[in-house]
Design brief:
Order of helices and strands: EHEHEEHHHHHHEHEHE
Helix content: 25-40%
Strand content: 15-25%
Oligomer: single chain
Largest sheet: 7 strands, mixed
Structural class: alpha/beta
Number of strands: 7
Shape: globular
Length: 293
C-alpha cells in the first residue's frame, strides 16, 4: 500500500512529522510522500531523525504548490525534488501560509459584509498559524439558518472543505477570492519544480467542480506535465479509469494519494482514504530513478 499525498503540521495537517510516520507504519504504508503546502521544512526535520525507528517504509520527497487559473486557486504536486532548493526558493515566490491565510480571511470577511451575511463579526477569533480562515468563518456562517440563501448547493453549507472548493476558490461563487495576483503562475511553478530536478503532477483534478475538465485541458495541452494523480479519495471509478486511460495514451506517469490531513479532514485515512482507495505500488515502476529516504 502506498500514499503519495499527505500533510503534516508543517502546513495544514494536524499530525506532526513523527506522528505521521507512526501512523503510516500502523497503516502498513510501504511508500509515503509528505507533500506539505509550499514548504519542505518537514524534510529538514527528517534529516535529524532515525526515521526507521518510526517508519520502515520508503519516502519520496514531495511538495504541493499553489498557482491559479483564471483567478481560481489550483495546485500542482512536485515529486523527487531537491528540498534544499525548494526551501531556498519558496519563500521568495510565496508568502507564508499564515500571511496567505490572513489575506483570505480579510477578503472573505469583506465579501460576507457586502453580501449581508449574518454573523457576529466582532467575536470571530482565529489563530492564523493553526486555523484555516475558511473553516472558522464557515462555522460562523452556518450558525444562522438565514444564511443558507447565499449558498448555491447543500454540500457547501454542510461541509467546510466543499465550501472552500466550491465557494472560496470558484469564480462563479459569491464567496470567490481572486488569487490571480497572489500566487506565481503555472509556468513559474513548473520552472521551480524542474529547477529542483522534480516531476510535475496534476493532483485531485475533479476537486475543481464544473471547471475540472476545462482546467485539466489547460494543464495538459499547454504545460509540460509529467503525470496525473489518478487515485484520490473522492474520485469515482469512472473518473479514475478516465485518468488512467489518459496517462496510458499520453505516456504520463501515475500517482495516487489520500490528501491526508488527520483531524483537519476527518474520515480520510492513510492509504485507503474513505475506505475505497487501493493505490498499487506498481505505478512507481515507470517513475525512473528516485531519491528515496
Amino acid at each position: 500500500m502506498i500514499d503519495l499525498h499527505t500533510h503534516t503540521t508543517y502546513s495544514d495537517g494536524t499530525d506532526n512529522l513523527i506522528t505521521l510516520l507512526k501512523n503510516a507504519e500502523k497503516s502498513n504504508i510501504e511508500v509515503l510522500s509528505i507533500t506539505d503546502h509550499v514548504t519542505c521544512e518537514g524534510y529538514n526535520e527528517l534529516k535529524t531523525l532515525d526515521v526507521k525507528q518510526y517508519f520502515s517504509g520508503k519516502i519520496i520527497k514531495g511538495c504541493e504548490l499553489y498557482t491559479s487559473i483564471e483567478g481560481q486557486t489550483v495546485e500542482l504536486l512536485a515529486y523527487n525534488i531537491d528540498t534544499e532548493i525548494f526551501n531556498d526558493k519558496l519563500p521568495k515566490i510565496y508568502q507564508s501560509e499564515s500571511e496567505d491565510n490572513k489575506y483570505q480571511y480579510e477578503q472573505l470577511l469583506q465579501i460576507c459584509k457586502k453580501l449581508g451575511v449574518k454573523i457576529n463579526y466582532d467575536k470571530i477569533q482565529i489563530n492564523f498559524d493553526n486555523e484555516f480562515c475558511g473553516d472558522v468563518i464557515w462555522k460562523e456562517i452556518i450558525k444562522n439558518s438565514e444564511n443558507k440563501k447565499f449558498f448555491d448547493d447543500v454540500d457547501s453549507w454542510q461541509n467546510s472543505n466543499t465550501f472552500y472548493r466550491r465557494c472560496m476558490t470558484n469564480s462563479k461563487s459569491k464567496f470567490f477570492i481572486d488569487k490571480s495576483n497572489f500566487y506565481p503562475s503555472i509556468s513559474e511553478v513548473i520552472n521551480l519544480i524542474k529547477s529542483a530536478g522534480g516531476l510535475v503532477f496534476i493532483p485531485h483534478i475533479y476537486m475543481y467542480g464544473d471547471n475540472s475538465i476545462k482546467f485539466f485541458e489547460i494543464f495538459t495541452k499547454n504545460y509540460p506535465i509529467d503525470g496525473i494523480e489518478c487515485y484520490y479519495n473522492s474520485f469515482t471509478n469512472s473518473q479514475t479509469q478516465f485518468l488512467l486511460n489518459y496517462c496510458k495514451e499520453n505516456n504520463l506517469l501515475i500517482s495516487g494519494g489520500t490528501d491526508y490531513h488527520a483531524n483537519n479532514k476527518p474520515g480520510i485515512k492513510l492509504g485507503i482514504g474513505r475506505g475505497n482507495l487501493n493505490i498499487p505500488k506498481s505505478i512507481l515502476k515507470n517513475w525512473g530513478t528516485l531519491e528515496i529516504i
